[in-house]
Specification:
about 625 residues; alpha/beta; seven-stranded mixed beta sheet; 21 helices; 9 strands
């Protein structure tokens, strides 16, 4: 995929564009620069091709999808077929084979999963325009200068379909029954190559419209796992971060997709070279996009950890070089995000297949001495894993104490940023005298909701650089799975799954209720900056004093539970190991499967090495 493979080239061309414009956004007019750019592209492609030939690895999104569909899934189906036939030929149920068949059925289901590239944001920020550009540039989804899309729209791959423009009536909900067809996602087909590797492009309705759109999004989140979702969130540079954006980040952090808050792409659209032509007078100064982007980035990083990319779809349509380069960065980000989903899925599949191959390895050994050695080795690994689980329990005090310090340190470092973000967001009744207690409750509730998202994000951030998590996964999961290189990819998934958003919410709800009882009895209060600072300080002091240790304790409990579950799985697998011999035909088939799986493992090592680069 050229954009993904040419990130360095894009950066070089962008730097050249900046030099050629002497401080403005101009075009690449120097023929020598264009020639150098072309030569750079050719050289890069040669290097990339050479690397591909040398390492024989999958280097495209298509290749990753094909590897799942044409290699891993057929292998799982073949293995399941062989194991079922072996049981028939033995004329009895082999417990370990029956368990392996169930695992292989799950593998086939994982192979069939499709990934979703989701475009979200408020209305009229350019979501549908961006979706059309990702599909190839032609107008497919209807666009307008007003809010049009009011229905979740999905595009899937079909090579023979004709990309005829979708009528605007199809992307809008009518006002009739809630159960009518328009209340469900609109599913259409498109021949775009972006969709070919089992990708569904999703254009969401504007989240600043009717409340039901946000409810539809919540239902959509519950229906699709975050392990198969890449998220692009679009905002208008001139609107800054708005209330609907903050509400979205709040919903995201408390949803099953909370882990996406650490990997989403934030697209700041409408950074047009000639400024805003709609409603701006001719003597107005052009927007200072640098400062606007800095403000947007600074505030957004309180609620999530995004990759921020500025772009102008208007200038891209005019083929302006700088705008085209920035769009290529967006394409590269989307491709990379989808590739990571595929890689994670491949690793998950290989981990499951490895457990099945473990069973086959024992089954094909005729030598009783060798089988005894294999059983002894498995028993040793089981004892080792049990010892590590016990070590986790024994080190609870140290682990929780260290982790609590890490959380507290991150919270302290970001306290001022969070206060600035809350002041920027605003609170109800600002600069007004509130005479009723209910008004102060409203102020506290807004601050509480924002702070909850911020602290949850901080916990994610502190976990990524945590010393205790690093030591834990080095000593526990590497030994449990025995796959050193795969840990680089699965680490983030396992880690973030242990940080429970609802737990943060539960503690905050308790904290909010406790503060509200005694602190809001005053009336005739001026809700100004001084008041907001004071209330924020009271809330944050309580958070710093009580909750890092509680969160750390809950994280530790989750880790122990997960480790115990993995240990129990190993015990069950050990109990299910077959202790009698297979006939020659079944043994030969199982040996062939083991050889095939070895080739997958060699390819996996090279593939992970390439993608990590």
């Amino acid at each position: 995929l050229k954009p993904f493979l040419c990130l360095q080239q894009i950066a070089d061309l962008e730097a050249m564009a900046a030099l050629s414009t002497q401080g403005g956004m101009g075009s690449l007019e120097d023929p020598s620069q264009e020639a150098a750019s072309q030569q750079s592209t050719e050289d890069w492609e040669k290097v990339t091709w050479a690397e591909e030939e040398e390492e024989e690895v999958v280097t495209s999104l298509d290749g990753l999808a094909d590897f799942i569909k044409t290699s891993l899934k057929p292998f799982a189906i073949e293995t399941k077929y062989v194991l079922e036939n072996c049981q028939e030929s033995q004329e009895c149920e082999i417990k370990s084979f029956a368990k392996a068949c169930a695992q292989l059925q799950e593998v086939c289901q994982i192979c069939d999963q499709k990934d979703r590239l989701i475009i979200a944001g408020s209305g009229n920020v350019g979501k549908s325009t961006i979706a059309n550009a990702l599909l190839g540039g032609e107008k497919f989804w209807p666009t307008a200068s007003y809010r049009m899309t009011s229905r979740i729209c999905e595009a899937q791959y079909n090579a023979s379909s004709t990309p005829e423009p979708i009528p605007k009536e199809m992307v809008q909900k009518s006002g009739n029954s809630r159960h009518e067809e328009s209340s469900h996602p609109l599913n259409v087909f498109h021949p775009s190559l972006l969709l070919k590797p089992d990708v569904i492009l999703v254009d969401l309705p504007g989240l600043d419209q009717k409340r039901e759109h946000l409810k539809s999004l919540e239902e959509y989140m519950n229906c699709h796992s975050d392990s198969s979702v890449a998220l692009l969130y679009v905002i208008d540079v001139k609107n800054d971060i708005c209330e609907p954006d903050r509400l979205f980040f709040e919903k995201l952090m408390s949803s099953p997709w909370k882990n996406l808050s650490q990997s989403l792409g934030l697209l700041v659209n409408k950074c047009d070279i000639e400024g805003d032509k709609n409603g701006a007078s001719s003597d107005e100064e052009a927007p200072d996009y640098g400062n606007l982007l800095a403000d947007i980035t600074q505030e957004t990083q309180n609620y999530c950890t995004p990759t921020v990319m500025d772009l102008s779809m208007t200038d891209k349509k005019k083929n302006h070089p700088t705008a085209v380069l920035k769009w290529q960065k967006v394409e590269a980000f989307a491709s990379n995000a989808l590739a990571q989903l595929k890689c994670n899925r491949i690793i998950k599949i290989l981990l499951s297949l490895a457990k099945v191959m473990d069973v086959l390895e024992l089954a094909v050994n005729d030598d009783e001495h060798l089988r005894a050695e294999l059983l002894k080795e498995r028993q040793h690994r089981l004892s080792d894993a049990a010892a590590r689980v016990q070590e986790l329990r024994d080190n609870e005090r140290y682990w929780v104490s260290t982790r609590a310090k890490e959380i507290r340190q991150t919270l302290e470092e970001r306290q001022e940023e969070h206060l600035d973000a809350i002041l920027s967001a605003g609170v109800p009744h600002y600069n007004q005298i509130v005479q009723e207690e209910a008004g102060l409750y409203e102020v506290d509730e807004v601050m509480h909701n924002l702070l909850q998202v911020m602290v949850a994000n901080d916990i994610h951030i502190s976990a990524r650089s945590s010393s205790v998590y690093g030591a834990l996964f080095q000593h526990l999961y590497l030994h449990l799975f025995g796959l050193v290189r795969t840990t680089y990819i699965v680490f983030g998934t396992i880690l973030s799954s242990l940080i429970h958003g609802p737990i943060v919410g539960m503690y905050f709800a308790h904290h909010f209720a406790a503060l509200s009882k005694g602190a809001l009895s005053n009336k005739n209060v001026l809700v100004d900056e001084r008041y907001v600072r004071q209330r924020f300080a009271e809330m944050y002091r309580e958070v710093l004093e009580k909750y890092p240790s509680r969160w750390a304790s809950q994280e530790h409990a989750s880790i122990v539970t997960q480790a115990e579950r993995d240990l129990e799985e190993q015990r069950e697998s050990g109990e299910a190991l077959m202790l009698h011999f297979l006939d020659d035909r079944c043994k030969a088939k199982c040996s062939e499967l083991l050889k095939k799986f070895d080739s997958f493992l060699k390819l996996r090592e090279a593939m992970i090495e390439f993608w990590m680069k």
